[in-house]
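LAB NOTEBOOK - FOLDING QUEUE
OPERATOR: T.R.
BATCH SIZE: 2
PURPOSE: Compare the predicted structure-token outputs for two unrelated chains run back to back under identical settings.
PRIORITY: normal
REVIEWER: second-year student, initials M.K.

ITEM 1
FIELD SEQUENCE / FIELD STRUCTURE:
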Amino acid sequence: MKIALSGYYGFDNAGDEALLSAITSSIKPLAPEAEFVVFSGNPAKTSSAHGIRAIYYKNPWVLIRELWECDLLISGGGSIFQDITSARSLPYYISVVALAKMLGKPVMFYAQGVGPIRRPFSKFLMRLVASRVDMISLRDQESASVLRELGVTRPPLRITADPVFSLQPGVEEKGVIERLSQDQGWNKLPLICVSVRHWPALDGYQTNLARVLDTMVLRGYGVLFAPMAWPEDIPESKEVLALMKEKAFLIDKRLSSTELLALIGRSKLVIGMRLHALIFAASQGVLFAGISYDPKVDAFLHLYQLDSLPPTAENMSTCLDRLLDQAEVQKRIAEKSEELRARAQENAGLALSLIKRRKS
């Protein structure tokens, strides 16, 4: 049994690397004989990090050969079907799906987050190809709404959950974080973990966030910037850090996705822009606050009855104080995350059912 995986892999984005780990580790217990091949931006790095065979994602002849030999193509998860960050990525990922279908292979959208899709050509491609795949599972209702608005009526849309909810850090990853905390000196502090990224439409938030983080340091918290995309998020982290008057910390080395999961798991609060910083927090039962730059962040916050952080320093500080003072919020996060963890596990069974159906 051979399964091909297409997604934003091999680009040092902790969220997407966690997705790859979560998908393969969920399938393996159900199908120990399964072999995987990953379409990656850096095959050597992907193979080294995950112990899985990988090929370069833009080598058309190798791609065709691997699709011809596979029993199933898994597309996603993540947010690969959107055209906000790039006009080219959606046509690429949907073309891989179309190629697999032309070769007669079953295809599953695996816990996808879909949208925003604004360009007419992107909408046309999604409507044309998505209606011809064999299984669509989605991580939220908002993604289902996007597909329905595009006219995707089949196959049935199943709402599950992000695969990362099924991922947990191990003893080794926790040991790495413990040593790092001692080396940097934040091992005895209640930790506020901050994940930011550059987003031009939000310019100006940096100063307000820095002011709020300064007040948190004065109240006895340790503030730690943890880049989720390496090294892409380093400059933004340094910019906010430079605006602070109080001492804060920065993770200045590349961590694996499961090491970042272990780091976030020992935090008191996560303030995040990147979606998977918030998902990492929720999966570990940690309080989180989102700075929204994309509808996917708002969709995830709404699952937990939370709103995004307001832009002004005063309102941001009030919101964080309320979050830290309400024990029922943390209880709600833990309970909802257990529900989503169970739903995330459904994806693996759905994927394998396509192979069984084809062979029966």
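ITEM 2
FIELD SEQUENCE / FIELD STRUCTURE:
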Amino acid sequence: MINSSISSLGGQNRELIKPGAYTSIGSLPGSDPAEAAKLIVGELPLLPHLPELPERGPGADMIGRTASLLVDIPVELVSTGWRLAGHPGRDVARARDFLAWDLDALEAAAAAHTGALKLQVVGPWTLAASLELQSGHRVVSDHGAARDLAESLAEGLRLHLAEVARRLPAAQLVVQFDEPSLPAVLSGTLPTASGWGTVRAVERSVVRDTLTALLAVVPEAGRVVHCCAKDVPIPLLREAGADAISFDITLDRGAAFNDSLGEAVDAGTRLWLGVLPATDSAVAFTHGRRRIEKLWNELGFPREQLAAAVVPTPTCGLAGATPGYARRVMATLRDIGTWLLEDPDE
């Protein structure tokens, strides 16, 4: 059964993430956990996060890391990616070692941190779309296997949250669920493992209920769903219990999408807006600010509500960027966060 509460996480509430906060998606360039943790805690003081360093190889990638959290469902690395296995092996052991090293580094760097702190896990549907059954088919193609995977992930996430809370008891934990494959799962456009066909669409209610159960593991106000695809299912994510929705603001989605965003903001859902490119580019404070201003004006909400409703981020993880660019992105996000808090009448 999925445990939907973690008493050790402390009193989280709607003020968990402070107005003017900004953050990164998760992945960074490089391979040194200590250096990455110091960078994140120093540059993202209001909303630091556990760094992901996929440059280290298999097991440090987002799928391998999340798969290593699974309880009683071992995985292994094969030529086509991660696959369910008969018993735990060295691939999972390596992934767990990477995670432990990263937690050690974060514990040292964030020992004095008392505010919100973000963890990232792959959501149940992207994980089911990425892992293979032993037959070679995607887990998402088997309803029972996908259900078991989600329940295992929920239990693993509960244990992960408890471990981080033990290491950093003053931090208030936020969880970002990465779901880039969610639109393809809903629409039936996800390619089969062979590439010759597509996986049948999963019913909307099944997708929603599975997400609801997993998000319930995280205390209210700390549930964020990140989807960098174009067709972000805003109403479904709200129904599932997301407190915030993270997406790439640079993609053109049209009026219907903005209507969904407006309804979300009106209902108190926070928007995490990916405003800066995730790979090396010319970044400027005005570039990100104008994107936020344009969207906010289209939505029609007062300027004074902006800082409490929006968290600026890069469009995706920064693993493909150079270290210098990653630092510039964080510095620019800081400037955008300061701008969010400015009085528009001054």
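REVIEWER COMMENT (ITEM 2): The chain has twelve helices and eight strands.
FOLLOW-UP: none requested
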